[in-house]
Structures are given as C-alpha cells and as structure tokens.
Write a structure and sequence with these properties.
352 residues; alpha+beta; 3-stranded mixed sheet; two-stranded antiparallel ribbon; 13 helices; 10% strand; globular; binds heme C
Length: 352
C-alpha cells in the first residue's frame, strides 16, 4: 500500500511526496489543504461509533478512504477551465474553504452565502466540500435533492452528537461536525432549502470486474496510479473520479467510476427489491418507489456507494442514533458487510 502510494505521488505530480513544507494536512472534502506553521488541533473530538456487532474483519474498511500522512503538492494560482464553463478558478481557489467554485451557474438556483462562502472563522462553505450543486463525492455526501427537513435534522444531529461516524477519524467528517456546531439555524435553513431545490445529476458509473487498476489514497479519496498495474478487486468497491483534475477543481459535472465485484449488482437488486425474510426490508417502502426519496425520507438512488455503505454501517453500529434511526434498524440488523457492498453497488446504478 505504502509503496503504491509513494510511487503514485511521485508519478502523478512529478514531485516526491513529503516535499511540502507544512507538516499538518487537513483533508477537506476532496482536497488536502496545507496549513501554516502553527496548526490548530482539530476543533472537535466526537466519539467514534462503538459497540459494532460486526466482527472486526467484517468492517467495510474500503468505504473509508483515508491516508492522513498524504502530502499534497502545493496548489498554484493559474486560472483553469473545465468543459462547458467559461468560468476560471485555480487549484488554490479550489482549496479555499470559504469559496465554492461555481463552474456551472446555470445548473442551480441562486446559492445562499453560507453555501457559496460560508462564514469565518468556523462555518466553511457547504459548497466547497459538497460542491456548488451538492453533487458531493465519495469522501463526503451528495446533498442535491435531499428533503430540506431531512438536511436540517441531520445538521441538528451532527451538532448534538446523535450522528457520529464509524471508522477512522477522517478530517472531512470532523470538519462537518465542526461546521454543524458553528452554523446558525438560519444558515442551516437556507442551505437546506437550496440543496433540496437542486436537481441531482447522474454521475456514477458502476463497473463490475474481477481486477481493478491500482489506486492510492490522496488524503481522503482514491486515485488510479497512472501507468500502474492491476490487482484483484477483493470484497471492495473502488470509487474513483474519472478526471482527477476536474474533481480537485470541484467541477460538479465530473463523473465517477465505481468498480464492484462481479455479481454485486444482481445480489444488491435482490436485497433492495425482493429481500428474503430475515435479511432486510424492501427499501422502496420508505425511500419511494424509485428510491429517489420522499418529502421526508432521503433518496438512496444514484449516490456514492462508499457513502451509502458508511451510513448503513453507522446505523448498524449505532454511530447514527438520531430520530430516524429506529426506522432503519430492521433494515441493517442482519446486513453483512458483503450485503452492504451489494446494496450500495446496485443503488449506485440507479438514476438519482
Ligand atoms: C469540510 C467539508 C464539509 C463542509 C464544509 C460541509 N460538509 Fe456536510 N458533510 C461532510 C462530510 C464528510 C459528510 C459525510 C459524513 C459521512 O461520511 O458520514 C457530510 C455530510 C453532510 C450531511 C448528511 C447528508 C446525508 O445524506 O445524510 C448534510 C445534511 C450536510 N453534510 C450538510 C452540510 C451543510 C448544510 C454544510 C454547510 C453549512 C456542510 N455540510 C458543510 C463534509 C462537509
Ligand atoms: C421503515 C422505513 C425504511 C426502510 C424500509 C428503509 N429505510 Fe433507509 N432510511 C429511512 C429513514 C427514515 C432514513 C433517514 C434516517 C435519519 O433521519 O437518520 C433512512 C436513511 C437511509 C440511509 C442514509 C441516507 C443518507 O442520506 O445518509 C441509507 C443509506 C438507507 N436509508 C438505505 C436503505 C436501504 C438500502 C434500505 C433497504 C434495504 C432502506 N434504507 C430501507 C427509512 C427506511
């Protein structure tokens, strides 16, 4: 793993990983931000979900891409472009946590300030990590089209500690919790109304395969090793942006490929649509006939499979124990990590 990671960093950027002056790297949503010499410790120390009934070996570690020692190459100020946009943003802009690059203004309603800019010092712009249109990425979550009431409730639960997380202490989720604690009710309402009004885009292509390109973790997301070899997929979904440059620039039209083991889509479809007694519950009963959600319940179609698995795991482990958890309890009670993988692979094939 380490070998691949080091080789890839040198290869992709033409620099040796670790040349970056600063020691502390904060992974923020998609990007690694290099802070100054006297870094502040993480603002929050939320408890990690405990009491997981899954055996250690069954933990779906693949869904938690996280490499805290990754050193991002420095970002420059050169104006960049992406297909279909006349706007220009630089790599440095895309690392600014108080500026959501708005590449495609015609794709969304007017962004409220909290989404576009946030509020210093602690409310980082929602539209940075979640992207201007809430399309999100494997390292966080899509928000486009979620019910406003659901978004507000999640913010309340991040704030109260009713929603924590399983797995490693990834900076993106620590920052999410810090933002939820600092945002005002009015900011949360505005952000929720905005994201609820944006139409989600179909951006994920699921590819079933036995072997995958080698990848490394650039902080909080996977990248294909350029010119790298292939390796067995194993019991994992490997989710990568189709274009890393556009992904890092937070282009909301960038697509993703999710490599999944052969047979996962069929197995997932059966679990989602026709579960046998004692396995799980038909998702459409609550998530809507097309699984795109209802006025209260979030959609689960066409979302990042890594995100979906983290949430199923969080409901199962009790890391998510908010108001909506009782409704998800029977769904996850008997789901193995292999079932979760299959369910997520299938859901990711559907239009959001
Ligand atoms: C530093 C990056 C970052 C910023 C800034 C950020 N978020 Fe998040 N957000 C995340 C991550 C990461 C998650 C997913 C946590 C997980 O994996 O469980 C998340 C999850 C969420 C969720 C849960 C989505 C779901 O489907 O349940 C909501 C709602 C949300 N964020 C809203 C917001 C709002 C509103 C703002 C701005 C006020 C914001 N976020 C700013 C990183 C961020
Ligand atoms: C009895 C109703 C019910 C059923 C059946 C159900 N869900 Fe849910 N689900 C919910 C509710 C309600 C929430 C929101 C929970 C909250 O507010 O924290 C949710 C949340 C989720 C989430 C988190 C979404 C997000 O944005 O973070 C996922 C993933 C999920 N469900 C997957 C499934 C799958 C897969 C199935 C079927 C195998 C399923 N659910 C069946 C009611 C249900």
């Amino acid at each position: 793993m380490l070998r691949v990671f080091t080789a890839a960093s040198g290869c992709r950027r033409g620099v040796i990983a670790g040349r970056v002056a600063s020691r502390l790297l904060l992974i923020t949503g998609a990007l690694v931000v290099v802070l100054g010499a006297a870094p502040a410790p993480p603002a929050v120390e939320p408890p990690v979900g405990t009491g997981s009934p899954l055996a250690e070996t069954e933990f779906p570690a693949w869904a938690y891409a996280w490499e805290p020692d990754y050193r991002a190459p420095p970002a420059d100020n050169l104006p960049q472009s992406v297909p279909g946009s006349s706007r220009r943003f630089s790599a440095a802009d895309a690392r600014n946590l108080f500026l959501a690059p708005d590449w495609h203004p015609a794709d969304h309603p007017r962004m409220p300030r909290v989404v576009a800019r946030g509020r210093r010092p602690a409310v980082r712009a929602c539209g940075v990590c979640h992207r201007a249109e809430g399309t999100g990425g494997p390292e966080n979550s899509s928000l486009a089209g979620l019910p406003a009431s659901y978004i507000v409730r999640q913010m309340t639960e991040f704030k109260s500690g009713a929603r924590t997380f399983s797995g490693p202490r990834r900076s993106p989720v620590l920052l999410m919790i810090a933002v939820a604690k600092a945002a005002t009710d009015a900011e949360v309402r505005e952000a929720a109304a905005y994201f609820a009004a944006v139409r989600p885009k179909p951006l994920i292509k699921v590819v079933e395969t036995d072997v995958v390109p080698q990848t490394y973790i650039a902080g909080s997301f996977r990248v294909i090793v350029p010119g790298g070899g292939r390796e067995p997929i194993g019991p994992r979904i490997i989710e990568v942006p189709a274009d890393v440059r556009r992904f890092e620039l937070r282009d909301t039209r960038v697509t993703f490929r999710a490599f999944a083991p052969r047979g996962s889509i069929t197995r997932g479809a059966a679990l989602v649509n026709r579960p046998r007694a004692g396995t799980t519950v038909t998702c459409a009963r609550c998530h809507g006939a097309d699984l795109k959600g209802t006025a209260q319940v979030p959609g689960i179609a066409g979302r990042s499979p890594s995100y979906l698995v983290r949430q199923l795991q969080d409901f199962k482990s009790g890391a998510r124990r908010g108001e909506g958890r009782p409704q998800m309890a029977a769904t996850v009670e008997h789901l193995s990590s292999g079932d979760m993988l299959a369910v997520a692979a299938y859901l990711a094939t559907l239009a959001p």
